Amino acid sequence: MRIPIQDAKKNVARILRAEGVPSENASMASDVIIQADVFGVKTHGLSRLGYYIKRLRDGIILPDAKIWITRKFPTCCVMDGGNCLGQVVANRATDIVMESAKEYGIGACAVRNSSHYGIAGYYSWRCAKQGLVGISFTNARPAVAPTFGNVPKLGTNPFAISMPSDFGFPFHIDCATSSIQRGNLEVLARMQQDADLSAYVTCAGKTPSQILDMIEAGTCALKPIGEHKGYGLSMAIELFSSAFQNGAFLSGLEGYYEGGEKKPYDVGHFFMCINPEAFTELEEFKRNVGNVMRELKASGHQVLVPGELESIADAEANQSGIEISDELLWELVSFGWDD
Ligand SMILES: NC(=O)c1ccc[n+]([C@@H]2O[C@H](COP(=O)([O-])OP(=O)(O)OC[C@H]3O[C@@H](n4cnc5c(N)ncnc54)[C@H](O)[C@@H]3O)[C@@H](O)[C@H]2O)c1
């Protein structure tokens, strides 16, 4: 079934408020969650609402945590997210890097003690909508093995880069650095669908839900994209997301104290925003980006450019709402979804 975007946002915000999330934070998180579905990213929108509710109930995401700046340079800062909802923390950091880029040409913020922030691209895309270049990285709990390894160590560590263009939509690349991400396995498991996943994981002949369990147990791992190149990229994102803020990394993101008791994930993010006008006129920059997109798009009738699928999905969702499977709807109803 399809649901109008505004109805879905109101529903999610109401459910989050019922879990103790203050109204402003609930609206902010709801906007990020639903934008994933609007962009057609079915793994990281409503599909993940259950994660956030469980973590709020477990006390490892704090609904109204204080978020503060712990270190400040003119264009750079470190933010402590206080284990608040990642979407709230990430939006605050994005506000800061955008302001800095508008005033000084560039802004960067390393974030500590945050939680899962949803789609990395929400924040870079916010920058592009304002004529700025946005970069968004995050680490995540262990799921991916290094090349030649089979123990989950790295997160699915996504990266997102968005640039304004005159092409009709921004250049917008937003993806995990794992060949398949946890969300894909969760969607397959929810639909009770099997698939041959042997190319993407270190264990053979397992169903999606078995693989998810085995990742938790440390006995199977996802493979990085593009062998050692993806491993290196994922590691760079891990470093951006931890080293600048002296934060948790790799197995430090497992979410358990030594005795097995649950603890906040202490996720780290890194945001950067660049003002093209520090380098050239904005319209020229947009034309330059658009020219690269045009030449690639024209190079083959099936060729897409990054951001195109999101732009098509966005137009469709604005016309006819976001799509929700029956299986997901049953799950949402159990959280108080009003259908
Ligand atoms: N917060 C977290 O911890 C976390 C972890 C992993 C993934 N994620 C999110 O999950 C989402 C999905 O990740 P994914 O790895 O499954 O993404 P994906 O493999 O679906 O790739 C999506 C990106 O690729 C582009 N794209 C797709 N097909 C293309 C083509 N033929 N030509 C050019 N570009 C093309 C899209 O425009 C988009 O930018 C992302 O939004 C990511 O940020 C979040």
Could you explain the architecture of this structure?
By secondary structure, the protein is α+β, with helices and mostly antiparallel strands. Helix content is 41%, strand content 14%. The chain has helices at residues 5-18, 23-38, 49-57, 86-104, 121-129, 182-190, 208-217, 227-242, 282-297, 308-320, 326-334, and strands spanning 2-3, 68-72, 76-80, 106-114, 133-138, 159-163, 171-175, 267-274, 322-323. Strands 2-3-4-8-5-6-7 form a 7-stranded mixed sheet. The N and C termini lie close together (11 Å). The structure holds nicotinamide-adenine-dinucleotide. Nicotinamide-adenine-dinucleotide binds next to strand 7 and helix 10.
List keywords for this structure.
339 residues; alpha+beta; 7-stranded mixed beta sheet; two-stranded antiparallel sheet; globular; binds nicotinamide-adenine-dinucleotide
